[in-house]
Each structure stands twice: as C-alpha cells, then as structure tokens.
Design goal:
Shape: elongated
Structural class: alpha/beta
Order of helices and strands: HHHHEHEHEHEEEEEHE
Oligomer: single chain
Strand content: 15-25%
Mean pLDDT: 79
Number of helices: 8
Strand order of the largest sheet: 4-7-8-9
Low-confidence stretches: none
Amino acid sequence: MAQLHTMNLTDYHAKYFAYELTKRNASDSVDKLAGALADAQVDLNPHQIEAALFAFRNPFSRGAILADEVGLGKTIEAGLLLSQQWAERKRKMLVIVPANLRKQWSQELADKFHLPSVILENRTFNEAIKQGNLNPFVQESVVLCYDSQVERDFARRLDQRSDIRLFLKLPRWFEVETPVGAYNPDWAIVKHDDETVYLVRETKGTKDFLKLRTTEADKVRCGEKHFEALGIPFAVAVSADEV
C-alpha cells in the first residue's frame, strides 16, 4: 500500500514554490512552457514547441495562425498555449471549434492537459443564465463554442422539403461505441417518397476523408458499419440535396 508523505514547508519554501509555479518567462524561452506542462500527458515534437513559442512571440492582439498540415498536431499546439495561459491564472479563454469536434476538444483538454472545459451551446447557455450567470462566457473553465454553417444550411434545406417528414439533430448523449472512441452522429431523418425510409446522416464540409482528422474519419467509418449492421442507411452529406 502506498504511503502518503507530508512535507512541512517553511514560509520561505512556500513562497519559493509559489514563485516557481506562477513565474513568467521570456516569450521565446522554452522554460515558459515547462511549468504548464509538468503533468501534461503529451509526447511533444520539436515543431509543436516552436509553433507555441512563435504564437507567444506575437501578442494576441495581433494574433497567430497555427497552420500545420493535417495530423501534425495543431490541437496540441493550441493546447500548449491554453495551458500556459491557464498557468498564468488567465481564465477568459474561448475556443471556437467545428461542431463535430467539440466533444473531442473537451476530452483532449482534460486527458492531455488536465484543463477543465465547458461546451457552451443553446441549452447550456440558457441553463447558465437560469442559474444566475448572466454572462455564461465567463466561467472557471475553457469555454468551447461551435458554429457550423454546413449544419445550419443542411437543416434549413431539409425544413423546406415536403418529402422530409421529420429530422432531428441527435443529442450529445446518443453515442456509438467504437474502437477509437465514442461516435456521435449528426442527424436522424425520416423521409417519405414512395415509402418511408429512416436515415442517419453525418454532415461534413467535405467527403474527402484525407482532409479530416484521422480519429474523426475512423469514427465515421465505424459508425457507417454500425448502422449498416442495423439495416439503417448511413452516409456523409455535404448538403441536404444528397439526402
């Protein structure tokens, strides 16, 4: 059985440790990230550290674009920035992500950087207001929001079609377990032409899986096999005209 050892800190040592945990380093120094990543569960590559330091060298008022190729770890690079800001006691952090990646971002921030996050959407926004938080964007967590023009246009077009009897944006709790993690498909649709057909559709900005994150593409493929086994037509759609 593990033993718990306690340490009696003098005022001097307490002040020293507090300084080490909160000190700020030069923006071009690797030490700037060391404290924030002391317990992070990530295997960093040199280019990711360089990208994070590049962003720190550019004041946020001017901004920085992290534009590595797919699969090179832009999420990790952004996580490095968020971790350092969090370590410096900055709490007003907003991350806008594609709708289909909001849960993945929340999970990765928790698993890899131990950062708390909250997904802010219509329901959670209204709940926060009812609980007395008149500005739900101010929270003791990284706030994740999403905006999907693809999904908005998809829903608007479905609503205009007489052959679509019902369509539903599937809730977050509707998940399909896959070997690469839980998959949350986008839409359940009831279509009636000569016969009634029950459909599941995933909306993406592209059908080219090489342009999607590897885990994202793998989950969609697993979801396709899942619904195929159930006898429910499943497909990736860019527009409602493909339904």
